[in-house]
Automatic annotation (TrEMBL):
Keywords: NAD, Oxidoreductase. This is aldehyde dehydrogenase (NAD(+)). Homotetramer. InterPro entries: Ald_DH/histidinol_DH (IPR016161), Ald_DH_C (IPR016163), Ald_DH_CS_GLU (IPR029510), Ald_DH_N (IPR016162), Aldehyde_DH_dom (IPR015590), ALDH7A1-like (IPR044638). The lineage of its organism: Bacteria, Pseudomonadati, Bacteroidota, Cytophagia, Cytophagales. The keyword Oxidoreductase applies. It comes from the Bacteria. Its EC number is 1.2.1.3. The active site is at 263.
Amino acid sequence: MQQFLQKLKTQPMMSGTSTGQAFWHTSAEADLLDSHSPVDGQLMARVYPTTREDYDQVVETARAAFLKWRLVPAPRRGEIVRQMGEQFRQYKKELGTLVSYEMGKSLQEGMGEVQEIIDICDFAVGQSRQLYGLTMHSERPDHRMYEQWHPLGVVGIISAFNFPVAVWSWNAMLAWICGNVCIWKPSEKTPLTALACQQIIKEVLEQNEVPEGVSCLITGGRDVGALLAEDPRIALVSATGSTRMGKAVAQTVAGRLGRYLLELGGNNAMIISQHADLNVAIPAIVFGAVGTAGQRCTSTRRLIIQESIYEDVKQRLVKAYGQLRIGNPLDEKNHVGPLIDRAAVAGYQAALFQIKEQGGRLLIDGEILEGPDFESGCYVRPAIAEMPAQTEVVQHETFAPILYLLKYGTLDEAIALQNGVPQGLSSSIFTLNLREAERFLSAAGSDCGIANVNIGTSGAEIGGAFGGEKETGGGRESGSDAWKAYMRRQTNTINYGTTLPLAQGIKFEL
Ligand code: NAD
C-alpha cells in the first residue's frame, strides 16, 4: 500500500484541506481524523479536519476562481476534463487498490469505480460541446427569443463512504464543464482516496494554469458538511448519503432558498416472475445482494417471487450462498469483503434481531466472522430471511448483506409490494413475458428512478440519468440531461426592429 500511496504522491499523514494545488490547515493535531481500513483494521491515515477558518478561505478562493473559470469556453473546460481522464487511466490500479483498501470493496469493484471516473470524464468532454438551449419563435415582429445556460457558481459536493470517488466525479466533471467550481466534502470514513484524487488531477490543473480554487477539498464529519448546506455562497449542494442526512441538508438549503441535488438511500427490489429465466436471474440476485457486502445504494434488498417458483428460487439461492467466499477483498478469489466499520456491523446485528421479532425466518443466518484474517471485526455472513410481509425492518434500508424474500400471486400484487416502501431508487423484473415487462415499465408499474428488465438492480452506466424518487431524494446525476442541474437557464428576447411591440398585444402610447 505504501508504494501505491507514494506513486499517488499521497502521504498518510498529509493535512487535509486543499484548494487544488496547495494543502494546508489550521486545525490542531488533537482533532485529527483517523481512517482505519475495514480490511485489516490498520490505521491508514490521520487527516486534519477543516476548521471554520479554513472553510472560509476555501470558499473565498473558490469564488475568486469562478470569476475566471466561467469565462473559459466550455469545450476548453472539456479538454481539461479529458486530460484528467487520462490521469485517472494512468493511476487506475493505484487508486482502485486504495479504494478497495480504504472502503473494503473488492479490488475489481475498486478498479470499476475508477473506470466510472474515466467514463464520466469521456462523457463530460462530449457534453462540453452540447450545452444546448432552445430557440423559440417570438410572438412579436422583429424579435428573437432563445434560452441559454449559464454556470451556477460554487457547487458543494457531499459524498458517502460506499462510492468514495465515483460520486464526486459524476458531480465534479459535469459541474466543471458547465463552468462551476467545486468544493468536495468526502465521507469522514474515506478521506484518503479523496486526497489521492486531488493529487491525481493537480498536475493537469497546474499545466493548464487553471485558477487555484476550481477544485477544492474540505475534510471532516457532518458538521463540515453542514457548513456547505448553511452557506448562501454555495449555489448548489449535491449530497449523496443516507435519507437522514438528505432531510437535514434539504431543510437547511431550502431555508435559504438554495438549490440541492439529493442522492439518498435505496431499498431495491427484484420481481422474479414465473416466466423468468432463472439461469440469468440467480447470479443477478446474488451479485445484487452480496456485492460490495450489500453496501451499494442499488444493492438488492428485497426479492418478490411468484409463488409457483418460490421454493425453487429459494433452494437455488441457498445453494449459491453456500459457495460464497468471504474475506480480504484485495484477494480476487473472495466474493464478499467487510462492512465499513463496527457501527455498520452493529446495524446488521440489530436488523437480524428485528427480523426474528417481526416474524421472519432466517434461511441463512447472519454471523460476525472471527479469527485470523477477520481481525477488523467487520466481516459478516450474508443472510437470507423469509418475511411474512413488508414489516418495519423490510421498510428500512439496512446497509449490509441481508436479503428479504417475499411471495406474490399476481403481477399487480408484486408491483404493489415493490412500490410499497418509502424509497424509490432501483427496481427490476425478471420475466420473458412481454406484457409483464411492459406493465412493470409503464406508468402503473415501478415508481423508481431506475427500472430494469432481466438485469439486476445494482450498478448503473454513466450514460443514463442516475437517481431515485420518494425518500431517495429526486435528484439525477451523470448522463442524459443531468448537466442541467449544474446550470441556470436564462431566457433572452432581442428586439431588432424599430418599434416596441408589447407582449399579449398590450398598447402603451406616449
Ligand atoms: P451518511 O449520510 O452517513 O454520510 C454521507 C455524507 O454526508 C458524509 O460525507 C457525511 O459526513 C455527510 N453528512 C452526514 N450528515 C450530514 C448533515 N447533517 N449535514 C451535512 N452533511 C452530513 O451516509 P453513508 O453512511 O456515508 O453512506 C451510505 C448511505 O448513502 C446509504 O443510505 C446509501 O444508500 C446512500 N447512497 C446513496 C447513493 C445514491 O446515489 N442514491 C449513492 C451512494 C450512497
